[in-house]
Design a protein that fits this description.
With 124 residues, the protein is mostly beta strands. The protein is built from no helices and 11 strands. The strands form 2 sheets. Strands 2, 4, 5, 6, 9, 10 and 11 form a 7-stranded mixed β-sheet that branches. A 4-stranded antiparallel β-sheet has the order 1-3-8-7, with no helix packed on it.
Length: 124
Amino acid sequence: VQLQASGGGLVQAGDSLRLSCAASGRTISSYVMAWFRQAPGKEREFVAGSSWNGGDTIYADSVKGRFTISRDNAKNTVYLQMNSLKPEDTAVYYCAVGSRKYIVKRQSGEYLYWGQGTQVTVSS
């Protein structure tokens, strides 16, 4: 599976961005999908995850209420809508394909395939 993330950029605090992650090589419709992020000098952290049909979504406490994960299985694409962005959201954002269908896990080891990452920079 190849994952292509896009939509990152430089924005100001309070702005919004929508990240996209297009998959190719295999359908993602039977898998959990998630977004992680990694800020400079920090470990990669879970941001949001979606079960195979979007019926179950979970979020990191730091983004809950501001970020929304969604997916369009017909387009083999997962999205991350990010609102009310803060400087602490600055990071490289990665999408990932999980090994499960129904249960969303926060641990990076549960994910089999990773995109190349897209940079999000939020200025104050």
